């Protein structure tokens, strides 16, 4: 027997429709790639998203067609999120930080019909266009006044002209909630990038989950500034969450340096933010130099890479900002776990609480997880045993877009994350490594992340990476590669001594090497494959 409730499909356009109707006056503020700050309301954003929907329909965009974006976090990108998905097409957010060959591969693989791009990316678009023959036109996200005089692009159009030519009379269509809504490719550090194709249903369920108190805990009274880009995993769902709860949204555009961010945080009275650790380290240094504090920011999500305990402590103690450490990936929409304490843990000492908070956190409803050994046997939740982390749920990938091996990815119902983790008795998951980065020394595993977190706690260390290097006796031993802070001196011996008493003796790195900079992926993560190549012939 089926239930007798209304069968209203979950649709992305419904989020903006809701915000326009019930939070119509609430603002969306954005810094633009052309310069200046733009502000309008949800009501106006909705009107323009409907104009865009009419424009796309006139361009013969059909259900399921892919449309690419190469854009910063701005109100126009926000309109694309809704206008494209709202008519049943797929909003393909492209990460402009990827290498040109990867971008060409991605655009051709997705068969994007149009690409909307910010003026910053004009030279990039000109470089890509000759290699992307299926793109019918390149649409610049700007007004007539900012259109370039000449461009090597074969068919370049102006976004504001496109919108101006269409009315805001539009009824968002109804379709199956499992319809594809947006597409994001993983950065693929070793392999070709792989497309994760989200649906309206997965996106809305993820938004409900993100809004929960033990997750982002945001409300209509918040002002949210996503530092995390809209071109990578939908800015962790914030462009959907904000209209759902009706809060003010502040979009930083290309201004991701500490000074610009701080100015926007203060001017717009931002209360909540989200981003990767590197951004917050930059902001922390800036705040220390300026001897200043935030007047309204009080909570933020840090994820995408392990949040070093030193960062958590500094934001909490020096700046009065609570960091919630979170874990996720493109394939998980991306939220998988978020770290907030359970009531019984509030009785623990501050140090004990802190030790818990440095973990990646507890799973949220909608994500089930387990850790398994090499034979696929489930491991205990004792906080010690570590194994491959597997997840499943309604906003976890089932298959990659146009996969050559459909059905194989999650044949047993679970998605293998490629991360290695422990889970403690209270359910807190801790990433110890990516499976390919684990260091196997004398048959035992050493966590490179744990050693890196410790190393960046040293006052002279700006950034650190630990990799396994072949060793005649132990098969592999950890090598610590360090970038020193400008103007700081520290010797190799001092750094090694710093690990004493903090980790088991055999975990202490075998050696230290200093470098000027470490290699990073397009999304700012340590590129350990490159580092392992660089130090392949290293002799301890
Ligand atoms: P990509 O695979 O394209 O680099 P993602 O952005 O999807 O992209 O990255 C997901 C990976 O990032 C995770 O599998 C994990 O290894 C790492 N990661 C994300 N959040 C954390 C975190 N809080 N701590 C440690 N690693 C993290």
TrEMBL record:
Residue ranges occupied by any AMP-binding enzyme C-terminal domain in the UniProt entry: 450-525
GO term, biological process aspect, one: fatty acid metabolic process
CDD domains membership: ttLC_FACS_AlkK_like
A GO term for molecular function: ligase activity
InterPro entries linked: AMP-bd_C (IPR025110), AMP-bd_C_sf (IPR045851), AMP-dep_synth/lig_dom (IPR000873), ANL_N_sf (IPR042099)
Keywords: Fatty acid metabolism, Ligase, Lipid metabolism
Domain of life, source organism: Bacteria
Domain AMP-dependent synthetase/ligase: 17-401
Gene3D superfamilies from the UniProt entry: 3.30.300.30, N-terminal domain of ligase-like
Family (UniProt): Belongs to the ATP-dependent AMP-binding enzyme family.
Name this protein carries in UniProt: Fatty-acyl-CoA synthase
